[in-house]
Amino acid sequence: MTRGGSKSRPQEPERKCIATGESQPKAGLIRFVVGPDGMVVPDLLDKLPGRGIYVAANRAAIATAIKKGLFSRAARQQVTVPDGLLDLLEKGYANRVVHLIAMARKAGQAVAGYEKVKDWLSKDQAKVLIQATDGSDRQKSKLRPPRERDRYINCLTGDELGLAFGRENVIHGALAAGGLASRVVEEAKKLTAIRALDSGGDKGHRKGTKTR
């Protein structure tokens, strides 16, 4: 999703992933809590009450936590992991990214369409380039993202990006500088990691999710 990789914020609190055993900034982790019924619940907004259980935001780590019963171990009690947790997370983060882009659009901080995006890029008004996974590679290669880190997002399909802009299908989008852009980038990183590591290829758009 990014050029040059991600850059951690030095003062951000760190938490340990129950699957890898490694500590890292919370931005790269997914927080879970255990509900009153003993069900594991993903806390995508990081607001749910209760003791947090953290897993690195990628399919491999989450799959390991499920397979090895690490949620129960971390919670120190027997818990239930919902069926299709990975798909639930993927859908949840896709909705989050779409929602945040839509907010940016309504605030005048996002545009869609090849010509508008090209214009923003030429004027250095676009701080983040967004392109659909199922768009033409040849067409997408005509637009280059800004050179700074975390300036390229490629984790949504054209239909999903269309939802963000109130259209049927969108291939090219751009975000202006601001807090919303930073939030979109952060959530898109998680969605990219969850989708990109699906080796089964059961969803066509995942094959197109890559790092540029």
From TrEMBL:
Residues 1-20 are annotated as: Disordered. Residues 15-90 form the YlxR domain. SUPFAM superfamilies: L30e-like (SSF55315), YlxR-like (SSF64376). InterPro entries: Ribosomal_eL30-like_sf, YlxR, YlxR-like_sf, YlxR_dom. Transmembrane segments: none annotated. This is RNA-binding protein.
